[in-house]
Design a protein that fits this description.
two-stranded antiparallel sheet; 54 residues; mainly beta; single chain
């Protein structure tokens, strides 16, 4: 019996990345410390351009 193997290829992949929105939050009682707290996280849309086979 032969194992099933999936394969694929792309010539180009673009748009990989993410953004993290933060807000500054000063710590109470300490004037020299500001925390950066995460608010929202989002991913970029990726684009896969078709490639050739082996």
């Amino acid at each position: 019996m032969l194992p099933l193997v999936a394969s694929g290829a792309f010539q180009e992949v673009t748009g990989m990345g993410a953004q993290l929105e933060v807000t500054a939050y000063p710590e109470g009682g300490r004037n020299d410390s500001v925390h950066q707290l995460p608010l929202r996280h989002s991913w970029n849309r990726i684009v896969l351009k078709r490639g050739g086979g082996p």
